[in-house]
Design a protein that fits this description.
By secondary structure, the chain is an alpha/beta fold. The protein has two domains: 97 residues, no CATH class; 369 residues, Rossmann fold. The protein is 30% helix and 23% strand. Strands 11, 12, 13, 14, 16, 18, 19 and 22 form an eight-stranded mixed sheet that branches. A four-stranded antiparallel sheet has the order 4-5-3-9, sandwiched between helices. Strands 2-6-7 form a three-stranded antiparallel sheet, with no helix packed on it. Helix 10 packs parallel to helix 12. The longest helix is centred in the last third of the chain and has 21 residues. The two termini are 41 Å apart.
């Protein structure tokens, strides 16, 4: 039934004037057929751990694969193993299996996952796989040639692994292409506080104090950038913990430099909830598999009220690159984050309705970014906002780069299923909410390595996602101040406020195929927040 639904979506795309042309019909059918064969051809006596979840049916032909050879079997290799249960006995049984191959296996405190360290040689032997280096389109990476296969008593306990290193996730931060005359700093914390009505929240003593916001990112930050930003705007010095996942050096042994994306993400949280603590989780190489490990670590730590991720890949790329395992692993880890009552926000993407594939070069193919399309995630789109001379909100319309559409993999979540205006009643719609993201009306970022200038505007839905994560910190501090518990099932609560004054409804603009309209739309979701009214409505 589920596979048939994916097939119907492809047929719809093939006949749509802006979808896949009929010329690709036979190619796509072949990809689907090969995917089904690959998923069902499991050798006797082995349990394959794989979940394509329809991923190979996304309506893109596979690009040519250049085989670059094998990997060094003695090279260090780390990965996560996500279990189906939280029983200690299962975790110890699976850990003992990997230890038989000379590997280290650390069990998470919640017993739901293992962090395994060894070599590519020991990993290949334990999982009955072969690793290869390939190049598809412009991307060179390491992957497995088949799904992991374990003895039945082990494989039956494993939900997913990140054993295939995968490709690099892409940052969704954008700098303006052209700078016009005048101050070029972007909107500062005070500007957004006036535009989105946060000032009354601050005046009531709510600034995020006592809450924690997690950020999932790649590379590093320079603490001097954060301090410069805080001092420039007169903000208190925030506690920022940097947690390194999968080591502090990249695959070549180098320490990653300070990067714009994590710097922007941290500064967005500080700008919106200056009293909150920030946990910045970073991985050194930005591989899709490392995001599985990072999400697992966030779930295991379980400290935060929210988590933001400003990276993504088009859903189709997980199929084209042959790394469906990593998507499924990320999805299982995001479920665990949700189980800890940590609400995940993800940037919806910066290529409008067309996705952003590096693997094919095709255009006019509707696609959405993952993890924004995951049903456990609140995806955040983008707008263009202008202010009056007094700094208040003048007008706002949909930003053309705002990622939006609907998934070809994940079913529509319950909290979205009865929402008027969604493009699909079967699949997860993107985005859920929005915030300013146009690089030409972007947010001020301090990144001193970019001198000159030390502060400049940055756009993209990388602004939107961490800002919404920080807004939830304000909501929960306000609830705690009233002796209430943290808000649960945040997506349902936000959708229950559709059409109320808690949102500014965005009705003008488009992202390519989809247009903004009254109510929900697949460009700006429910709209942008009136933070004071949102905090009050959710208290």
């Amino acid at each position: 039934m589920f596979r048939a639904a994916f097939q119907r979506k492809i047929e719809d795309q093939m006949t749509h004037p802006l979808g896949v042309s009929r010329a690709w019909t036979s190619v796509i059918a072949s990809v689907i057929a090969l995917s089904v064969l690959a998923l069902t051809a499991i050798p006797a006596g082995a349990t394959a751990v794989t979940q394509s979840k329809g991923i190979a049916q996304k309506g893109r032909p596979a690009a040519a694969v250049q085989h670059l050879g094998g990997v060094n079997s003695a090279q260090r290799h780390e990965f996560s193993v996500i279990l189906k249960t939280k029983t200690r006995a299962d975790a110890e049984l699976v850990a003992a299996y990997f230890k038989r191959f000379g590997m280290l296996a650390r069990i998470a405190s919640n017993n739901r996952s293992l962090h395994v360290t060894g070599t590519f040689g020991s990993s290949a032997a334990a999982a009955n796989v072969r690793f290869e280096r390939v190049k598809i389109g412009s991307e060179s990476f390491t992957r497995t040639t088949s799904s992991p296969q374990f003895p039945p008593q082990i494989g039956s306990r494993i939900a997913a692994t990140s054993i295939s290193p995968g490709v690099r996730m892409r940052s969704l931060a954008v700098r303006p292409q052209f700078l016009v005359a005048g101050p070029q700093t972007g909107y500062g914390p005070g500007d957004f506080a006036r535009i989105y009505d946060i000032l009354p929240v601050y005046a009531s003593g709510i600034n995020g104090r006592g809450t924690t916001v997690d950020i999932a990112a790649c590379n590093n930050i320079d603490p001097k950038d954060i301090r410069f930003f805080e001092d420039f705007y007169g903000l208190p010095h925030t506690i920022v913990h940097v947690i390194h996942v999968d080591g502090t050096t990249d695959q070549f042994g180098n320490v990653p430099p300070s990067d714009l994306e994590p710097t922007n993400d941290v500064e967005r949280v500080i700008a919106t909830a200056p009293g909150a603590t920030v946990n910045l989780y970073v991985v050194p190489d930005c591989f899709t598999s490392q995001f599985v490990d990072m999400f697992e670590q966030i779930a295991d730590d379980g400290h935060a009220v929210s988590m933001s991720v400003s990276y993504g890949l088009p859903e189709a790329d997980y199929a084209v690159f042959g790394i469906a395992e990593d998507l499924f692993g990320q999805s299982k880890a995001l479920e665990e984050i949700q189980d800890e009552n940590i609400t995940s926000f993800a940037a919806s993407g910066d290529n409008g309705s067309w996705g952003d594939s590096l693997a094919t070069g095709l255009v006019n193919i509707l696609d959405v970014s993952y993890p924004a399309s995951d049903p456990t995630v609140l995806s955040v789109g983008g707008t263009t906002v202008e202010q009056t001379l007094l700094g208040t909100r003048l007008f706002e319309y949909a930003w053309g780069g705002s990622g939006g559409g609907y998934s070809g993999i994940f079913p529509i979540p319950p909290w979205q299923s009865h929402t008027p205006g969604v493009a699909s009643g079967l699949f997860k719609n993107v985005p859920d909410v929005a915030f300013d993201a146009d690089p030409n009306t972007g947010a001020a970022v301090a990144w001193i390595v970019s001198l000159p200038p030390p502060i400049f505007p940055v756009g993209g839905t990388s602004i939107s996602s961490p800002t919404w994560a920080a807004i939830l910190a304000l909501v929960n501090q306000n609830r705690r101040s009233r002796h209430s518990t943290d808000l649960t099932n945040v997506p349902r609560a936000l959708y229950a406020l559709q059409g109320t004054s808690a949102y500014y409804d965005i009705t003008v603009g488009a992202n390519g195929y989809f247009r903004a309209k009254p109510g929900y739309d697949n460009v700006t979701g429910l709209g942008v927040p009136n933070v004071a009214k949102l905090v009050k409505a959710l208290q």
